């Protein structure tokens, strides 16, 4: 199964209808491929919004600092993010070797103290020298107390604009030639020095100060007397998000306003990244309540998110280069800006790879082409997609590796995406790693085989029934372990009539069999509240196993191997079989039915709403990220528990 290392990652955040073209052949219509740009020049702007990151350098601060150090494009940034790095106490130690050793020691600590976190933050700040770099390489414009516009001198010169023209101030009602060229009202904003950037009196719940200032920042198309002069704008925005409440530090309604405003400028492309930026939040944002349909836009929109989970962002590391300590950031905004401002065609996948060099399942990007009312996967080479039309028309077994092969090469997808509730044909999972990845220790596999993680692409609670899954090289444990996506918000249930695969040594021992392989029947994988419970029948005996594969953990530790189910567990299993078992008998989902717990639907809904309210209240009062809650599974081995604890210390969940 594919798993990427998360040593330097921080947790941040509407799928196309199953009957759409994506389910037929996995490709977007050719008229929308790499939508051609108009001959006009293309400008870029990078937006980072947040008012919660205070004590440490988390995901949004990391993104901002990456863009700042690389000087790739103008940046619109929350005041709070600037002061998160400027307010840091610089280390008294100046020897880079000693500083590097200190940072390395503190990075390896599982539970650093507040003082140790401040030391790490100070060391990072010392390598960036924000005030000095800003004074020498940037022009800073104040938009309002909560928001600033930073313009790199090199970017301006690349546009044949001298910095002195940007520093000029104008109170006239008309925009200047410099503003027309940049698409930004730089001359109507005051130029300031970094020492004048002070934290606002209060910390807003969401970045309404950005929405209120849109007309003060951007030059709209109606403000150009000559329509031929209008430049294209490619926009990237990054901020925290939470289910049903916000993305990119904007409420869902504010994000709708932002989308509508982008129609008032000549937008070439919008890319956004946030936790929970796909699936449920997508359907809420793009649903047109008055028309009863999905709203469409004249520009392509890319979300770096797959479903109802947090996303992950590259964190800042430190490195020594010729005796000098420097920040190391994998995100390459220079490459990114070059790609999204291409004069002819934008290579969307190339652009995303610049800022997502290590692609994870939760960050698989989706694109909404101009005029279309749905998102589809941006790069079909990295997924296997099972849609509604295929589910209704196909009866023959489908071999993932050969059916989705491209240019004569066997497919090696990151994930198998399930858009349909019912999969009435056999799935053969004999996918193998590419040769270049064969020695990657982050890929937990059986030999050269791996299991692309199964992902439900149906928003909210969902049940999927599958006729059969088989493999000649992936073990039954590996297959059952790959139905879990880290931090998935909604419960999911996967009902599999038959699972035929080899048995690992541990599996054979647990099943008391010498058979090298076998068939499990009536497999039920139940995912809820961050845990998995797997039931199945083998040779007339019901077994149960806890836990699913996830980052930095082993697959089913020694104490989590399948065991014979007790009477209570068998009763729960039989209840699931009665409602959702046996392929093809599922006629109607019962979203209100709590098939994964004994709580009532009303109680679950109330608990979810209470959780959201509590998280929001804590974020507003403490103004700092919330620690990720680490679930301790039943029957968890000490080795797995330790791995889980380490993973939780290296990651954070926000809002």
Mean pLDDT: 81
Q: Rg to the nearest angstrom?
A: 26 Å
Largest sheet: 10 strands, mixed
Oligomer: single chain
Name the overall outline: globular
What is the helix tally? Answer: 22
DSSP, total strands: 29
Distance separating the two termini:
30 Å
Strand content: 15-25%
Give a verbal description of the structure:
By secondary structure, the protein is of the alpha/beta class. It has 22 helices and 29 strands. A 10-stranded mixed sheet has the order 6-4-5-3-2-7-10-13-17-18. The chain has an 8-stranded mixed sheet with strand order 20-22-24-25-26-27-28-29, sandwiched between helices. Residues 1-38, 436-446, 550-559, 584-605 and 622-655 have low confidence and may be disordered.
Question: What would you say about this model in short?
Answer:
With 655 residues, the chain is an alpha/beta fold. The protein is built from 22 helices and 29 strands.
Key terms:
eight-stranded mixed beta sheet; disordered N terminus; disordered C terminus; 655 residues
Secondary-structure blueprint:
Elements: E1 9-11, H1 22-25, E2 42-49, H2 59-70, E3 75-78, H3 79-86, H4 96-107, H5 114-128, H6 130-137, E4 138-144, E5 147-152, H7 153-158, H8 163-167, H9 177-182, E6 190-192, H10 208-212, H11 214-217, E7 232-239, E8 246-247, E9 250-251, H12 252-262, E10 267-273, H13 280-286, E11 287-288, E12 293-294, E13 301-303, E14 312-314, E15 317-321, E16 324-328, H14 333-340, H15 348-355, E17 366-368, E18 376-377, E19 383-386, H16 388-393, E20 398-399, H17 400-403, E21 415-418, E22 422-428, E23 453-456, E24 462-470, H18 476-481, E25 492-502, H19 505-511, E26 517-528, E27 531-538, E28 541-546, E29 563-564, H20 567-580, H21 601-622, H22 638-650
Parallel strand pairs: 2-3, 2-7, 7-10, 10-13, 19-21, 20-22, 21-23, 22-24, 24-25
Antiparallel strand pairs: 1-14, 3-5, 4-5, 4-6, 8-9, 11-12, 13-17, 15-16, 17-18, 25-26, 26-27, 27-28, 28-29
Helix pairs in contact: 4-5, 12-13, 14-15
């Amino acid at each position: 199964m594919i798993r990427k290392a998360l040593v330097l990652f921080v947790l941040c955040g509407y799928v196309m209808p199953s009957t759409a073209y994506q389910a037929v052949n996995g490709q977007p219509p050719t008229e929308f491929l790499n939508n051609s740009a108009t001959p006009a020049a293309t400008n870029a702007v990078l937006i980072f919004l947040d008012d919660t990151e205070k004590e440490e350098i988390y995901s949004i601060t990391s993104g901002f600092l990456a863009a700042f150090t690389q000087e790739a494009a103008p940046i619109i940034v929350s005041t709070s993010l600037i002061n998160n790095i400027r307010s840091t106490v610089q280390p008294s130690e100046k020897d880079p070797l000693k500083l590097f050793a200190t940072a390395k020691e503190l990075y390896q600590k599982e539970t650093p103290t507040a003082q140790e976190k401040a030391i790490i933050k100070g060391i990072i700040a010392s390598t960036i020298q924000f005030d000095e770099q800003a004074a020498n390489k940037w022009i800073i414009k104040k938009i309002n107390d909560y928001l600033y516009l930073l313009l790199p001198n090199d970017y301006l010169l690349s546009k044949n604009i001298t910095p002195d023209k940007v520093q000029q101030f104008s109170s006239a009602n008309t925009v200047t030639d410099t503003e027309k060229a940049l698409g930004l009202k730089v001359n109507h904003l005051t130029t300031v020095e970094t020492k004048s950037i002070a934290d606002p009196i209060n910390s807003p719940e969401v970045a309404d100060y950005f929405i209120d200032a849109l007309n003060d920042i951007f030059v709209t198309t109606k403000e150009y007397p000559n329509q031929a002069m209008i430049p294209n704008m490619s926009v990237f925005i990054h901020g925290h998000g939470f289910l049903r409440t916000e993305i990119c530090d904007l409420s869902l309604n504010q994000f709708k306003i932002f989308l509508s405003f982008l129609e008032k400028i000549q937008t070439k492309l919008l890319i956004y990244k946030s936790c929970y930026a796909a699936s449920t939040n997508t359907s809420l944002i793009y649903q047109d309540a008055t028309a009863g349909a999905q709203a469409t836009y004249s520009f392509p929109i890319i979300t770096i998110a797959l479903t109802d989970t947090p996303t992950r962002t590259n964190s800042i590391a430190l490195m020594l280069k010729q005796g000098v300590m420097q920040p190391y950031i994998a995100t390459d905004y220079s490459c990114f800006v070059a790609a999204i401002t291409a004069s002819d065609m934008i290579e969307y996948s190339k652009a995303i790879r610049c800022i997502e060099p290590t692609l994870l399942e939760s960050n698989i990007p989706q694109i909404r082409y101009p005029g279309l009312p749905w998102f589809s996967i941006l790069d079909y080479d990295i997924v296997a997609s099972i849609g509604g039309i295929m589910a209704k028309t196909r009866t023959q077994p489908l071999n993932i590796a050969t059916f989705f092969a491209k240019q004569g090469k066997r497919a090696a997808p990151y994930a198998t995406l399930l858009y349909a509730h019912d999969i009435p044909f056999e799935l053969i999972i004999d996918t193998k790693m590419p040769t270049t990845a064969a020695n990657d220790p982050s890929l937990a596999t059986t030999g050269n085989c791996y299991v692309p993680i199964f992902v439900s692409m149906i928003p909210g609670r969902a049940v999927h029934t599958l006729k059969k899954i088989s493999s000649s090289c992936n073990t039954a444990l590996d297959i059952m372990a790959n139905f879990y996506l880290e931090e998935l918000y909604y419960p999911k249930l996967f009902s599999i009539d038959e699972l035929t695969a080899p048995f690992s040594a541990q599996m054979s021992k647990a099943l008391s069999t010498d058979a090298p392989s076998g068939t499990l029947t009536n497999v039920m994988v139940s995912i809820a509240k961050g845990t998995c419970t797997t039931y199945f029948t083998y040779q007339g005996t019901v077994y149960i196993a806890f836990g699913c594969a996830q980052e930095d953990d082993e697959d089913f530790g020694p104490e989590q191997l399948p065991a014979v189910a007790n009477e209570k567990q068998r009763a729960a299993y039989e209840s699931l079989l009665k409602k959702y078992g046996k392929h093809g008998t599922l006629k109607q989902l019962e979203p209100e039915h709590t098939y994964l717990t004994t709580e009532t639907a009303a109680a679950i809904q109330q608990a979810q709403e209470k959780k959201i309210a509590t998280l929001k209240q804590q974020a507003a009062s403490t103004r700092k990220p919330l620690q990720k809650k680490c679930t301790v599974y039943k029957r968890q081995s000490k080795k797995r528990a330790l791995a889980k604890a380490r993973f939780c210390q290296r990651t954070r969940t926000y809002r």
